[in-house]
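User: My instructor asked us to take a sequence, write out its structure as tokens, and then describe one feature of it. I'm not sure where to start. Here is the sequence I was given:
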Amino acid sequence: MNTHILAVPRRIVITGASRGIGRETAIQLTRLGHRVVLVARDRRALDAVAAEIASAGGRAEVLPTDVTDPGAVEDAVATALAAGPVDVLVNNAGWCDQREWRLQHLDTQRAEMALNYWGAVHMTRALLPSFLARGAGVVVNVSSLLGAVAAPTTVSYGATKAALEHWSHGLRAEVAQHGVRVVVYVAPHTDNAQGRRVAWRGVKRLPESYAAARLVAAIDRAPRRRGAGPAYAVFLWLARHFPRLMARLVGNGTRHLLAEPSSGASPASPASP
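Assistant: Let's start with the prediction itself. The structure tokens for your sequence are:
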């Protein structure tokens, strides 16, 4: 018996699908014959991705939604389910504002948590009842190595990903008996707009196509946790068994960005994802 989730065509919802890893994952999935539901706030960007997929013979639906708004998410998911069942949810939407925690505006910290953690919670809460009713479904939550290893200048972002992972593992224990799988995918430092904004000395940015291919593999295998390739598997192993070593190694990559305590710097104005 073939136990691969993607052995037959699936309908897959992807958040943050207007750009970056989400967009590339959607394109790769449609090349494999799957149907994708593209979720993000920017309808024009989503339409462009859908048109690109359609021109290559793929199938994509557009669902403009602000995943930080639980009411909007409920309405959007109801619309999606009215068109047919959903098999997989990929919670990919995320944002990182890199600066020292003491210099980061409180509204920015809240915005990171609202998108990176609560966005995934809202989407899962809305779709989970349909998964439970069918006795099948996969939730893939896209995380980061910074969810396992704290680093200067990414304190808030790392906290959102740590919260996402803890929630994912607990949820898995609750829903596994009902046929629903929950996966944590630890994405790599990626060569896209966000990845280029985050300075991480000594860590290579990997292509979007690679990050997306490893995400597709995580959907297909549905492991408990999957790193983006062998190197990230090693990083996660070191973080678990040698946390002080990994904290030092990762911290060295961002410590050069720290401001002098006497610089007189004050919290920045709120940033938008």
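For the description part of your assignment, you could build on this observation: The mean pLDDT is 90. Try explaining in your own words what that tells you about the chain.
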